[in-house]
Amino acid sequence: MKRLRLGMVGGGEGSFIGGVHRIAARLDDQFELVAGAFSSSPEVAKRSGEALFIAADRCYASWQEMAEREASRPDGIEVVSIVTPNHLHVPIAKVFLQHGIHVICDKPLGVTLAEAQELAQVIDASGLQFILTHNYSALPMVREARARIANSEIGDIRAIEVEYLQDWLNDRLELTDNKQASWRGNPAMAGAGAIGDIGTHAWQLAAFVSGMEPETLRGELLTRIPGRVLDDEVYAEMRYANGARGRLWASQVAPGFENDLRLRIVGSRATISFRQQQPEILEIHPHHGNSYVVTRNGVNNHDSVRHQCRTPAGHPEGYLEGFAQIYREAAVKIRGGDAPLLPGIAAGLAGMKFIETMRESSDRGGEWVEW
Ligand SMILES: NC(=O)c1ccc[n+]([C@@H]2O[C@H](COP(=O)([O-])OP(=O)(O)OC[C@H]3O[C@@H](n4cnc5c(N)ncnc54)[C@H](O)[C@@H]3O)[C@@H](O)[C@H]2O)c1
């Protein structure tokens, strides 16, 4: 077996998440980056490719050219990572799938539910793998929480509370030359504000760990910073079929919060609590019992969780390793194996449906809307 030949669209000079994907792809040595269309500017694309030691004839000026040329080479890429602004995810994914190339794509899936549904059909017809990098759901202690809940350790779920709070958009960075903020402030490129950028992560995390989707939900999309076009804060409430209630709060204008993604799930026997800024531990609070923490790679981890750990207990793993786990499992799936916890098109469709359902509720003054 050889390393999978990987291409990348986006991720050029000055960009953020492309570099994280490259580290993640290298961490377990299953991929080799051999081609890219790294930027919308041909010069920047070329310069970025050179800095990554990509052969000159495989640094492309456009992703369309890359898909065609790579598909026609015997040593062409087998999988492409899409790390561009949101509006390009679906068009790029479709073209690469139509050229027989597997896709790893960053979230949110796109800018509308309708285009996401079209993509789902292309994926179906292609028989290829499509992986969406909801990286937090690959963290060991998140997987541990999921395994314990699936094993009925906390009893019947009564409440699901998820928050993703940041403060970096508390200034109008979209009016500056900040590369990440400028497209995020543009509705045509981002599609949605905080709800798409971090709300979809929170939504996916809650559904992944609890194993539940609500029957109805309602909420509000807020724009706190005057003059901003898109939402920068979102509040949602959920009602589940078993009587459980949920709340989701995502904000990019919450001073003092960096990447504070937290999840608490309250059951009839215990509460489980996770915070991504402390990814080494999972808190368990049993009724009539002492609260305790489960430590990553500790003796009482679920077997599957211990197997995914890369370093011994106490040598911290976090964001990058979670991302790498997505790549490790993507390699398994692309090679025909099984990776049931990997987020894919279903998670992407749910994220887009969450955005559109919440918009509908918000436009109707916070009314309950069917999921
Ligand atoms: N999973 C996560 O934790 C996470 C974190 C940050 C961003 N993201 C997602 O990753 C994506 C990129 O975000 P970012 O913060 O890295 O943005 P960024 O602005 O830093 O990078 C975007 C890159 O795409 C390139 N690009 C734009 N148009 C292109 C085109 N036509 N052809 C080729 N390249 C093109 C830009 O030149 C740039 O290199 C977004 O969808 C975002 O939601 C995910």
TrEMBL record:
All copies of domain GFO/IDH/MocA-like oxidoreductase, residue ranges: 142-272
InterPro entries documented for this protein: Gfo/Idh/MocA-like_OxRdtase_N, Gfo/Idh/MocA_oxidoreduct, GFO_IDH_MocA-like_dom, NAD(P)-bd_dom_sf
GO-annotated molecular function: nucleotide binding; oxidoreductase activity
Keywords: Oxidoreductase
Gfo/Idh/MocA-like oxidoreductase N-terminal domain boundaries: 5-132
Keyword Nucleus among record annotations: no
SUPFAM superfamilies: Glyceraldehyde-3-phosphate dehydrogenase-like, C-terminal domain (SSF55347), NAD(P)-binding Rossmann-fold domains (SSF51735)
Enzyme class, spelled out: oxidoreductase
EC number: 1.-.-.-, 1.1.1.-
Protein name: Oxidoreductase
Species in which this protein is naturally found: Buttiauxella agrestis ATCC 33320
